[in-house]
Amino acid sequence: MAIFGDAFATALALLIGGDPQLFGIVSLSLQVSLAATLIAATIGLPIGAALALARFPGRQPIVVILNALMGLPPVVVGLVVYLLLSRAGPLGSLGLLFTPGAMIVAQTVLIAPILAALARQTLEDAWAEHCDQLRSLGATLLQSAATLLWDTRYALVTVVLAGFGRAAAEVGAVIIVGGNIAGVTRTMTTAIALETSKGDLGLALALGIVLLAVVLAVNAAASGLKNLSVRRYG
To answer: In this structure, are residues 163 and 111 in contact, taking their beta carbons and an 8 Å threshold?
Structure first.
């Protein structure tokens, strides 16, 4: 109990004192996760819209594969990205391995299928409800997709926030491709793992408090958007 008390006191001192190492790690984590989420949303939302509205041969197997990719093991994603970005890999010339760029790539690969699958389900439900009306107005498939993306924007922002929360809490993939280098690729999750193993529980707990606050904030925002959507359309 005394150990926890000492660690908690140290964590509060680091947070209140604005420890540069602590907030440097937090800043890098948020930058990487935000960048990965924006890229994944740019990729995943259009894919989800296409699968929701279009009907073509092979669509169902693609949907099944996409749903399966939601459960991708992070360490497998990290390994694949590592092999691609390593010096002997096809993308080794980019020099991204053990940089924040590699971590962004890994997180993007991890969460893009999640965003695509959740967006597909959201838009497919909306399409089933409004397809007759849109067809009667003569809307093309592209126009229908744009209309539904706007109509379900609150639900889709909730999907994107879920992706961000998943990215921010990731450790397996980023530690493989980032290397957990101090001041360069050390994120909140990788730093917590390292500092705990070193016995620096104060810094680990401070980072845990910040990470928990980020996750709670994301969930609160998602819940608020859901309630706003219900009040607006329900």
So the answer is: yes
Q: What residue type is assigned to position 3 of the chain?
A: I
Structure tokens of 44?
């995943």
pTM: 0.88
pLDDT tens digit sequence for 34-68: 999 999 999 999 999 999 888 888 889 999 999 99
CATH of domain 22-187: 1.10.3720.10
What gap in Å lies between CA 112 and CA 21, rounded to an integer? 30
Q: What torsion, rounded to 10 degrees, do the Cα atoms 146, 151, 152, 154 define?
A: 120
Q: Which residue has the tokens 């680091």?
A: 14
> What is the rounded CA–CA span in Å between residue 100 and residue 28?
8
155 contacts: CB under 8 Å, gap ≥ 6: 122, 225, 226, 229
d(CA 209, CA 211): 5
| Distance (Å, whole) CA 102 – CA 85 | 8
* Domain range list for the chain: 22-187
Please state, in angstroms and rounded to a whole number, the distance separating the CA atoms of residues 44 and 166. Answer: 15
Query: Minimal CA–CA distance to 41: which of 105, 114, 106?
Result: 114
Tell me the H-state helices in 91-233.
100-136, 141-151, 153-168, 172-178, 188-198, 201-233
